[in-house]
């Protein structure tokens, strides 16, 4: 689909560009030639008109209209000039009557005279003028020039010289030639567009096919393709991605295998710890020797500690699936604090969630995540008066739970690591509480945990659990 779309675009760009260039070039050239022909004809007609006007006695124009000897003499003279100048007609307009008094072509209606009123009036005012091209009989084009005949400061008449535009037929042929050339150029552009688009779309189609293989986790085929520099850059980037993703997937599969193996080992260890704990408690209960009672108590203590670690490890390795339901945040916070150890409850204070604030969450998992974060905050506090403030709020339509302590704060470089498994700042810590909380919020609820901390002023964890809901 992508390749087809690009090919269509290339076709359209080439065809439209070719059509536009040819059309603009043709129109400009045609009008340029036509303008030159009109200009050349105007100069020719006005030059001929000035020659004729110079040979006319102004006082004779009044007598020409009587059609006597003066008329006959001028008619013969004008016919002779018409043949010499190779024009269609020469005529004289008498200004008083405003009509033609003599013409070398008799019985010609001279329909164009009314059309050329502006040019004739201009000539009667003393300035030479010429008409625009007009079509005559048989589709032939003509142009007429008008030159004033002056008698001192007065206009005695106007000489009109009409000629056919012989070269216009060549202009028409040129226009047809342009149309033919334009059609050939568009056809050539179509072929060129097909060749160029194939050079672009074929490599892209191959890259698309290989990308589809990558999406199906088929990393066996190396990504190589022919094409321009940009296509090669894209292919190289995809090849690098293929190698990296392949390595990542192989590593992830290995880690998954290791995780499954570790979980199995952890189960076996937990079962053995259960047996060990039972015997250690029995020995502690039955023993009379104080030294034996002390050693057995240490075994119980460390076995419980190891059992807690195993439970956290197994909890981290499993996938959390959220069973979401609409929950009142005030009630959820109260229940979460109630389930915490008494010494932790003594340091926690709920500052409120806001009236009616609700969210669609898995209450069990949220309470588990909140337990881990609050417990982590409590264990990190080194003050006599430990204080942890819990509240719920809303930010851009997202409900969050805030856990804020009055501790020493966390360094920036430490914040980047606190959600990594087994990272801990305490000697007796396991480093799994915060990673488990992160998995619950991030993976099971699609949310996020943000940490705001300043050394000497405490730390705030914000658990974004989901969108606000209404009951």
Task: Please specify the SSE layout and strand pairing.
Blueprint: H1 2-54, H2 60-64, H3 69-85, E1 89-94, E2 99-103, H4 112-115, H5 117-124, E3 129-130, E4 134-135, E5 141-151, E6 154-164, H6 168-215, H7 229-286, H8 290-317, E7 325-328, H9 329-338, H10 342-345, E8 348-352, E9 358-361, H11 363-380, E10 388-395, E11 398-405, H12 412-415, H13 433-444, E12 448-454, E13 458-469
Parallel strand pairs: 8-10
Antiparallel strand pairs: 1-2, 1-6, 3-5, 4-5, 5-6, 7-9, 9-13, 10-11, 11-13, 12-13
Helix pairs in contact: 1-6, 6-7, 7-8, 9-11, 11-13
What does this structure look like?
The chain is of the alpha+beta class and 471 residues long. It has three domains: 2-170, PAS domain (Beta-Lactamase), CATH 3.30.450; 244-317; 325-469, Heat Shock Protein 90 (2-Layer Sandwich), CATH 3.30.565. 57% of the residues lie in helices and 18% in strands. The protein contains 13 helices and 13 strands. It has helices spanning 2-54, 60-64, 69-85, 112-115, 117-124, 168-215, 229-286, 290-317, 329-338, 342-345, 363-380, 412-415, 433-444, and strands at residues 89-94, 99-103, 129-130, 134-135, 141-151, 154-164, 325-328, 348-352, 358-361, 388-395, 398-405, 448-454, 458-469. Strands 7, 8, 9, 10, 11, 12 and 13 form a seven-stranded mixed β-sheet that branches. Strands 1, 2, 3, 4, 5 and 6 form a six-stranded antiparallel β-sheet that branches. Helix 6 runs parallel beside helix 7 and helix 7 (229-286) runs antiparallel to helix 8 (290-317). The longest helix has 58 residues, at 229-286. The model has no long low-confidence stretch (mean pLDDT 78).
